[in-house]
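Example protein was shown:

_____
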Amino acid sequence: MFTDEAMDPVSVCSLWRRSQQAEQESRGCQTRAVHSAEAEVQTRWATISCAQTDPQYQAKEQLLQQSHDQLEPPGLKDFLQRVEDTVIRELVRNARSHAFDEFQVNWEDQNQRVSCRHCLQHASAQERGLHVTSVSWSCTGSVIACAYGRYVSVSPNLSISLFTYTHTHTHSLCVYICMCVCIYVCMYVYIHTYIHTYIYICTYDIYMFLVGRIDDGDWSTERSCVCTWNLDRRTLNPKEADLVIDVPAAVTALCCHPNQPALIAGGLYSGEVVVWDTSRTQDPVLVQTGMSADSHREPVYQVAWVPLQKKGEFGVLSACSGGRVLLWTVDSDRGSFVLHAGYALVRQQVPHSSNTSFKARGSSTVGVTSLALSPWDPDTFLVGSEGGLLLRCSFSSQTPAAAPSEGHNVTLRAPAVFLFRPCSGPVHSIHCSPFHRNLFVSAGTDGLAHVHSLLQANPLLSLRVSDSYVFQVQWSPTRPLVFAAATGQGEVQIFDLGSRSLRPAATMEQGGAGQAATCLAFNSHNPHLLALGKTNGTVCVWRLSHDLTEQSPRESSQLEQIANQVAE
């Protein structure tokens, strides 16, 4: 009923696959052929080095063998046995000795104790024949400031030459009158033991700062300048100053600010006090007193920065040959000086001492030629005069001065509280010890350096520095027993009070003969440097050796012994 039937196969083609194959495309890309190369490096020579020492025991055996082979000197063994007990006894004795307990070996070469490092010059000042009157280091210790003016040294026949000048130059009647008025003041005669008699005309304006050209007959209109050099600059030119400040009058005193390196205080021969700001190259004058009623009327021979009651603030203390010591403050709002306090030194009010022979004559003031501040007592300052007086003064003195106010806006006070033994000539320089509160050193026309105690009228020590004048003296900032003195013979003598001999430990001399050393200054930040100004217009910067700058262990105790001794 049912049967199988074979039928032809039926195929159905995919229309989707066909459509996809129709849309397919074949694409291809190929990079450029990559080139390759091979290189080889090979050294041509090879070296092998080695070193080897002999074993230690072999070297010792060789040394012993050599020593045994050599014959002993005759009598050596007997000598060693004979001195053995003596050597052992001395070694034990030395081991118990304390002679070298604090000894420190100095390996530095001491062949040259001082050497000149720089010789700074300002061509314009040298051409005009100006002298270096003062030098001062900045608070950073890298900048040296130099003031220019003019000195006239004294000779025994000074009075004769002055009178000869006035009589031969009759065209200048004013000069003749001024000289006569100055010469009559006072005259001291100092008998030099070994040389001859010096006659000191003790008017500071005559013998020291006759500023200006005598040939022109005008002493106060000589223009000068202040120059600075930065010694840390790689482009330092010793013959060209980094900064030159033109000043209308001779600069007689200079002092850098203790905290601000750009500020410099100066005193002028005209009586003005100026503060320059070296950062202001166009107009460096920060403040100046001018010719006001409060300002000085005589040449200012000393200026110093004084700390005020407010922390960080400083005033300027100035002293002149007219006996006035004035304390100025800076009014930053008005850009001017304000007179804060004034002091006048009058002969009638000079204190007397049983150990000193001083007689007040008249009511004339005491011409101030030098001044020093105590680093230990802010109330104490020292004053040296043209008549040889040496006074200890107090800022807190309330005694009215027996002198006319001359228009000052403050009441002048008499600051002198103690009189030291007067010197035989004007006192050029005073400096307080930075290591002892009672010691200071002074020097002047007698050629001596006097070490004083604030507690005694007579000096503790008097050292012969020079046969000429001593223009400045200063303690070392790092050595308690060392001080330096600039002399009229052109030398700087460095004394060490700890040495057995009181002769100079070192002498610095640079330049031609007859050029006086007028000023000096130690560098507190770099104690190896010492600046020296001379009358030939040069400033020499000297380098000091290690033994002149490094303090020895027992130096402070030796200074204390000097301070405690009783003056004769």
